[in-house]
């Protein structure tokens, strides 16, 4: 949005007009009425006879009519003054302004609109002012507006400071963990509970999980909240399955009389809680409870993640990494990277979604390859090392809980359906999350670790900000300071959620214009704040806007206005440097808080904030950009002091089973399926019990190495987070488990897993592997000397591919080969269609449709089908294929290309191309 000098002048004039009208109504109108007809207070009380005579006589001089208007004017002025006083008093006591009765409510609304327009417009003057007196005027205007705001900043939010100290808050928009608070006392008003205002995405289940460590305690909140007085317009809480933004709920404190039965926080051996209420399906608090990284193992988290997962027990912790922060590195939210970055699970989950979206977009654009000698070779740029490690840590949370891993399309779909973020976890204190609300945020970061912490916050917001959920506004100089070496303007052009302005005044102008726009929308809809407006009309693009900038003293007044008005309008401010107008936090080199002052200093004291190095941030920004479907042009892969090569898919050689001993018939006694879910089978059926997860991973890995692999090589790829001794123990246990399960099931006494010359491999005489049959068919297709033999081999290969490789197993090695196989089979289907389309076009279409079932986002496959359908003179089929493509691409927030639209609109032209 361009904010010109003309619009500034118009807003200033509008604000001046509003102030003049307000001043006339408050002071000028009573003075004028007094001059015209004197005081409205009579010097004596008239008798009844005098009143009767005045009313009964004919009003020839209109004196009675004028006196009536005069009295009505004084009455309206009194109501006007009452409305102003009510707003001021409500602001001073920190409560919501009560609504006056309906006959006089329009006058109250007029009062608020006049004050709002004057305060918002005069903030324009503050951004242009360079003197301290201008900043003082803006502060005064802000105070007037805040008094009239129907929902002033909640005490639990980060907000700007005030001249007079405020009492300790008792209600919050983001309630801290009550289990860790002191028992109620005089300072908390003696209440055994706190009040929480429901935000979009809140459910009783995730509130209970966040507060008490178990979602099963949601009935406690529901029982305590029944009958609570709700704000005007918010319905009463009568159903635990239904929550509305703006409702209030009571959160009982642990240890209080009303919550004496509250259980302790989840322990490693705690039973799984009962099922959540139905309202859980609307929650955006999707929490992978456990998390493991290269140096830490984590425990139950309260951070939103992209896929719903039930609570689970934490894993035992591992030893500290050298140099780790002793208190925080065993926290539920922390992931330590070898480069020195320390990030939260929220960022790891967002990067995991970005990797999934990147893969889907690359598959969408991948051209058809009919050269069988290069089938499946990786040609895309590698995933940056920092992103790959963060994704592995996030995906390991599902494996640790023995929960099915979400596929890439599932991750992306869940993320597209997620609500806009209303808070952000930016650090850890005493093992618990330090969460800040985004709306009304007024936080300054200073010290050696300030830029690293701000870089982590900015990167996570950018990763979560697409589809109008959040927007970052940052001056170019500050963007280059946070992300040196990057063409940040080029990045912002690819990300709709990032606005780079030439300087801070342009940034504040952008936000002031957004404030005016949102204020008008709230006035038209008669809603109290932007979250309520988004809940009422989800299609309205009103993202949470965050200003990230260093603020010189002459611009502090305008930025202070933005932070003060931000709570209602979903705007926050993160200042790079000390911030006396809000909460200021000083950080050491490892982002540990050494000093904090301001209204919310207690939230940060003793905490450590997440931090991100410039190299890791560059790789993450690159992935965030590619997740939008655009490959980086200027951005280059970040340098790495200890680079790790991207795993290359292992090309599985064709395996010929050894001949069976004389007298034996049939195939091997056992079969291993790795295409789809990893499963062992016997002639009697699948083996459903007894096989451990580590054994399934080892079987899938060994299927890629029919010639065998050294144990150290296997453990390094399968379990990179374990120390070598623990990894060897797990490997040996997995081999023992495989042999014992197969022997018990088949009754045989063979080894099944052969150890020879220091290498382990699957015995091809005892175990048949579906992957080997597939690779043999592909090898036959490459070596075929005529079309008939090639068609036969390709048909067999396509039929043998029954699912993606080792679904449900995570790891760089398995994901690399999974993509390798998917590309190879897609190309095999296309090659088969090319061979069949002249003599049997119907079979060619069937081959291409089968390729789409394995790779439903590959747009070139749809284009090939549309050309073939057009050649068969089937325009209706062409349109159906195009519509199916559009539906598929919509799942990953993409649209068909111009080439696809041309094929759908002009099918006759495809005959010429074909």
TrEMBL record:
Q: Which UniProt keywords apply?
A: Membrane, Transmembrane, Transmembrane helix
Q: Where is the composition biased (Basic and acidic residues)?
A: 321-331
For the LysM domain, which residue ranges apply? Answer: 194-251
Segments spanning the bilayer are 12-34, 64-93, 114-135
Q: Which PROSITE patterns match?
A: LYSM
Q: Where is the composition biased (Pro residues)?
A: 307-317, 635-644
Family matches, as InterPro entries: AfsR-DnrI-RedD_regulator, BTAD, LysM, LysM_dom_sf, TPR-like_helical_dom_sf, WH-like_DNA-bd_sf
Please list where the region (Disordered) is annotated.
146-197, 227-335, 368-388, 627-649
Taxonomically, which superkingdom? Bacteria
The protein's name: LysM peptidoglycan-binding domain-containing protein
């Amino acid at each position: 949005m361009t904010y010109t000098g003309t619009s500034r002048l118009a807003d200033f004039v509008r604000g001046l007009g509003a102030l003049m009208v307000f001043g006339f109504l408050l002071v000028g109108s009573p003075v004028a009425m007094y001059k015209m007809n004197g005081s409205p207070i009579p010097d004596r009380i008239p008798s009844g006879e005098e009143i009767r005579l005045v009313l009964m006589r004919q009003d020839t001089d209109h004196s009675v009519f004028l006196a009536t208007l005069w009295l009505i004017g004084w009455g309206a002025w009194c109501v006007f003054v009452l409305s102003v006083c009510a707003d001021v008093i409500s602001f001073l006591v920190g409560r919501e302004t009560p609504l006056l009765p309906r006959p006089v409510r329009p006058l109250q609304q007029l009062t608020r609109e006049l004050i709002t327009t004057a305060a918002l417009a005069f903030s324009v003057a503050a951004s242009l002012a360079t003197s301290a007196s201008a900043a003082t005027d803006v502060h005064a205007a802000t105070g007037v507006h805040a008094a009239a705001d129907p929902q002033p900043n909640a005490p639990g939010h980060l907000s700007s400071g005030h001249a007079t100290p405020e009492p300790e808050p008792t209600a919050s928009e983001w309630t801290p963990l009550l289990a860790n608070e002191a028992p109620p006392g005089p300072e908390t008003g003696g209440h055994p509970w706190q009040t929480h205002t429901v935000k979009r995405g809140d459910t009783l289940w995730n509130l209970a999980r966040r507060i008490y460590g178990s979602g099963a305690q949601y009935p406690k909140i529901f029982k305590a909240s029944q009958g609570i007085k709700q704000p005007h317009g918010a319905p009463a809480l009568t159903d635990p399955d239904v929550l509305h933004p703006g409702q209030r709920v009571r959160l009982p404190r642990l240890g209080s009389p009303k919550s004496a039965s509250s259980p302790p926080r989840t322990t490693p051996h705690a039973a799984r809680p009962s099922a959540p209420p139905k309202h859980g399906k609307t929650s955006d608090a999707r929490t992978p409870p456990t998390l493991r990284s290269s140096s830490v193992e984590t425990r139950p988290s309260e951070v939103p993640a992209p896929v719903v997962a039930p609570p689970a027990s934490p894993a035992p912790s591992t030893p500290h990494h050298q140099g780790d922060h002793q208190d925080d590195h065993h926290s539920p939210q922390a992931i330590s990277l070898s480069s020195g970055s320390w990030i939260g699970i929220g960022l790891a989950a967002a990067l995991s979604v970005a990797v999934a979206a990147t893969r889907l977009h690359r598959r969408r654009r991948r051209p058809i390859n009919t050269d069988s000698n290069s089938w499946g070779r990786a040609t895309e740029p590698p995933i940056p090392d920092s992103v790959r490690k963060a994704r592995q840590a996030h995906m390991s949370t599902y494996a640790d809980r023995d929960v099915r891993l979400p596929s890439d399309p599932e991750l992306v779909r869940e993320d597209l359906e997620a609500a806009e973020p209303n808070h952000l976890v930016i650090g850890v204190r005493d093992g618990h999350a330090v969460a800040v609300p985004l709306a009304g945020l007024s936080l300054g970061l200073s010290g050696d670790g300030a830029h690293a912490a701000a870089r982590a916050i900015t990167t996570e917001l950018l990763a979560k900000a697409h589809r109008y959920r959040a927007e970052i506004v940052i001056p170019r100089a500050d963007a280059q300071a946070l992300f040196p070496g990057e063409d940040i303007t080029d990045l912002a052009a690819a990300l709709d959620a990032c606005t780079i302005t030439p300087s801070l005044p342009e940034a504040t102008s952008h936000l002031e214009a957004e404030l005016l726009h949102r204020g008008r929308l709230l006035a038209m809809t008669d809603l109290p704040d932007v979250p309520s407006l988004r809940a009422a009309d989800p299609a309205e693009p009103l993202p949470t806007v965050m200003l990230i900038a260093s603020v010189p003293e002459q611009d502090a007044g305008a930025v202070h206005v933005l932070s003060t008005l931000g709570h209602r309008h979903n705007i926050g401010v993160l200042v790079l440097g000390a911030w006396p107008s809000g909460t200021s936090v000083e950080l050491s080199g490892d982002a540990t808080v050494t000093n904090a002052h301001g209204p919310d200093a207690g939230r940060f004291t003793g905490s450590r904030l997440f931090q991100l190095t410039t190299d890791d941030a560059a790789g993450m920004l690159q992935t965030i950009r590619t997740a939008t479907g655009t490959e980086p042009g200027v951005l280059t892969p970040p340098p790495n002091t200890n680079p790790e090569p991207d795993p290359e898919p292992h090309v599985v050689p064709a395996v010929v089973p050894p001949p069976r001993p004389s007298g034996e018939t049939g195939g091997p006694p056992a079969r291993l399926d790795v295409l789809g879910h990893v499963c062992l089978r016997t002639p009697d059926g699948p083996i459903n019990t007894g096989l451990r997860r580590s054994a399934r991973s080892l079987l899938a890995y060994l299927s890629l190495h029919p010639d065998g692999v050294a144990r150290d090589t296997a453990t390094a790829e399968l379990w990179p987070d374990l120390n070598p001794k623990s990894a060897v123990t797990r490997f040996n246990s997995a081999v023992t488990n495989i042999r014992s399960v197969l022997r018990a099931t088949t009754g045989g006494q063979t080894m099944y897993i052969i150890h020879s010359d220091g290498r382990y491999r699957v015995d091809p005489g005892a175990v048949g592997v579906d992957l080997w049959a597939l690779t043999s068919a592909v090898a036959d297709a490459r070596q075929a000397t005529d079309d008939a033999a090639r068609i036969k081999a390709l048909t067999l290969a396509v039929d043998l591919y029954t699912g993606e490789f080792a679904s449900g197993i995570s790891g760089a090695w398995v994901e690399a080969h999974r993509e390798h196989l998917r590309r190879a089979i897609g190309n095999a289907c296309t090659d088969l269609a090319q061979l069949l389309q002249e003599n049997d076009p119907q079979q060619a279409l069937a081959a291409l449709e089968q390729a789409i079932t394995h790779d439903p986002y590959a747009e070139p496959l749809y284009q090939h089908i549309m050309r073939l359908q057009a050649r068969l003179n089937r325009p209706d089929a062409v349109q159906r294929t195009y519509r199916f493509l559009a539906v598929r691409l919509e799942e990953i927030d993409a649209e068909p290309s111009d080439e696809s639209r041309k094929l759908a609109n002009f099918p006759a032209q495809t005959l010429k191309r074909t």
